[in-house]
Amino acid sequence: MLKLRVGVIGLGVGEKHAEAIARIPECELAVVCDKNPTALAAVAGKFPGVVARERDTDILDDPAIDLVCIASYDDCHFFQTMRALERGKHVFVEKPFVLHEEEALRVRAQLRSRPNLRLSSNLILRRSPRFLDLRQRIIAGQFGNLYHLEAEYNYGRLEKITEGWRGKLPFYSAVHGGGVHVADLLMWLARDRVLEVSAVGNALVSQGSGFGNFDNVVAVLRFASGAIGKLGVNFGCRMPHFHAVALYGTKATFLNGRDCAWLYTSADAHVPPLILDTAYPGVHKGALIASFVAAIQGTGEAEVNEEDVFASLSVCFAIERSAHSGLPVKVNYV
Known about the structure:
Oligomer: single chain
Number of strands: 15
Structural class: alpha/beta
Largest sheet: 9 strands, mixed
Order of helices and strands: EHEHEHEHEHEHEHHEEEEEEEHHE
Helix content: 25-40%
Number of domains: 2
């Protein structure tokens, strides 16, 4: 089988993409791209023989490139994804893969017109050893029936929206950019879909900074199974980046911590919880690319497929609408 020739656009987290691709035997890391010449030279220098380009179109329009990994600024994702698909390339794109619902609809239509092409996004929490272990326990029946699920995306990096490029975009959503991780995580763990959301938000922490959207959002979720969920996105918290996850089932309760998690199987205070010390987050940021390559070549399944990508962001679109309208919103799956 011929190797896939791969180009990487954006060399922040894209450097991790390049590292992962260089380790996949079925791939050839052919070209890397960044508008910053210093970053471009630094990353290209780590991969002998790889071509360095400053213009994204040099990759997007190159007929010799089979797969494009997009890790540019969020407002570039839509243009780069569409151009890559239009030119017959598979796409692995950082989240959020687009900023707006109408863009997601156009990407969906393009994929339907090109059924031979694949798309995935970097919903990397699925590869965290702790959450992989948790999902296996759920599937094995250790939790009984899940009835309440919580996940908070505690970013702790307010400067990313008050001083960085995100805050300079005409529109940036903390829900789309961060909440998408935990929206996907909850649906993946529950093996269920969210039907409706009801959300509130504020911007008290970023007040006066010029940032034009909520930096803190809380949403109540209604799952198809009848389970209830809570999803939080908090960019201004005074704590290091953390994914607070709590699952409540009829047989067990899971609480995530930094160094370990706790699995409770009894309400008796004298019965200690099981300590789960699997690694968290414990995952390389390019870890999903190998399974995506296998799906492209027909030798395996992508750990995050097209349906997963659209589903998680569809929930986030609904949360954003609900937070601004003050009304419950049904999830319209793109």
